[in-house]
Amino acid sequence: xxxxxxxxxxxxxxxxxxxxxxxxxxxxxxxxxxxxxxxxxxxxxxxxxxxxxxxxxxxxxxxxxxxxxxxxxxxxxxxxxxxxxxxxxxxxxxxxxxxxxxxxxxxxxxxxxxxxxxxxxxxxxxxxxxxxxxxxxxxxxxxxxxxxxxxxx
Length: 153
Prior knowledge:
By secondary structure, this protein is mainly alpha-helical. Helices cover 67% and strands 8% of the residues. The protein has 6 helices and 3 strands. The chain has helices at residues 9-40, 44-55, 63-70, 74-86, 108-128, 134-150, and strands at 61-62, 90-94, 102-106. Helix 1 (9-40) crosses helix 5 (108-128), helix 2 packs across helix 5 (108-128) and helix 3 packs across helix 4 (74-86). It is globular. The relative contact order is 0.10.
């Protein structure tokens, strides 16, 4: 790597790590997206919405909260949810405490559909991480957790 005079060795190391992490994450996401599309005709974004709604309280989740959980805009959530509503996987109703807000939840069909997808998704993720031992996966998890919490301290 060519050294830029204003970039230290530590910065170069951090940049290389960041680029490797980003590349690995993108490759994993691309693989999972292709598998989900081939098996279920669903994007990974739609799967992520279903997963968050599956984990939500029984009454559902406000769309603004869902966008925070997914780290996307409210408009993005609305766009991704439109086909899920049309297919009867998700139900959207006005929020009981705030008429300006909406709450979404999985329908019974949505729960069954998500559970089938989630079972396969877990197998695919396991397959993608199979080259790492259990100990290496734990180490990776710990390192990523350390990176995540370092930004909040």
